Amino acid sequence: ARLKTQVMYCFESKYALCLYEMIERRIGLEYKQSEEFTIADLRGLLNVPEGKLERFADFNKYCLKVAQDEINKLCPFWVEFTPIKKGRKVERVSMMWLPKTMSGRRDAQNLIDQHSIVRRAKLRGALRDHREMPIALEPDGSKIIFNQKRRIWK
Hey, which residues does 34 pair with through a beta bridge? Predict the structure, then answer.
């Protein structure tokens, strides 16, 4: 597996970094595009500390979903987790990964090439368009953000 340091430096979550390493090891396998893990195995592979995120709902919300969102936006591949239940209890998690199309890879690379502040805003969904970025600073330190409709002071 060839890990790209440019991508690794863009991650905000330690779980996303671990997940990136896991998928990069598996992405070159032609015959395999999914794998099932027990909850305990997946917690170990993602380096979740003992006593943290013990309920699956918490593990899913704060670890898997966060890592999945970052991976899907920054990497040249796409990943999805599907819980496998027995009754009401989640026993296993299926992880599926696929390479992105050329336009998806281009979008991911464009996001990586952005400044860290812009990238962070786009990852969190706060910024959709580059025209919403602050383009001027006032002497008192307040920012002027130009929107398409009006001028906003912050």
Answer: 96
